[in-house]
């Protein structure tokens, strides 16, 4: 893998929603650029043509605990180690930032990615607003 993961990579508001949609997720266009103002830090990767091909972030109070979210890799670049490189770079920044605990939720098919990066699977719960 020859792509560089960059902390707080300059990203235009439309780029993450576009990447989300390419990965088959809801674009959540209204979240950007507000997300960049509210999260602790983010990381991104660009291809040689300057297209955003990977993104993720850590949010929270920034005291002891943070929450990693939206680890997204463009479908054409999946299974090349880019997701793991993104997660590991975010964890390095979390440590530099002073976080002692980082949590995340993920689909069970991604367990090996996160355990290779140092996460310990555990039980938990998720609350969602009823729509």
TrEMBL record:
* Listed Pfam families: Acetyltransf_1
Please indicate which superkingdom the organism of origin belongs to.
Bacteria
Q: Which UniProt keywords apply?
A: Acyltransferase, Transferase
Q: Where is the N-acetyltransferase domain?
A: 4-131
The record's annotation in SUPFAM superfamilies points to: Acyl-CoA N-acyltransferases (Nat)
The identity of this protein, by name, is GNAT family N-acetyltransferase
Q: Which organism is it from?
A: Paenibacillus tritici
């Amino acid at each position: 893998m020859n792509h560089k993961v960059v902390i707080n990579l300059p990203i235009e508001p439309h780029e993450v929603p576009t990447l989300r949609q390419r990965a088959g997720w809801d674009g959540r266009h209204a979240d950007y650029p507000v997300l960049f103002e509210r999260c602790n830090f983010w990381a991104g990767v660009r291809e040689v043509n300057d297209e955003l091909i990977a993104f993720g972030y850590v949010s929270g109070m920034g005291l002891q605990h943070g929450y990693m979210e939206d680890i997204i890799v463009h479908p054409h670049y999946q299974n090349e180690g880019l997701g793991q490189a993104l997660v590991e770079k975010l964890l390095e920044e979390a440590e530099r930032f002073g976080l002692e605990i980082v949590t995340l939720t993920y689909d069970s098919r991604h367990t090996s990615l996160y355990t290779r990066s140092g996460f310990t699977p555990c039980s938990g719960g998720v609350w969602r607003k009823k729509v």
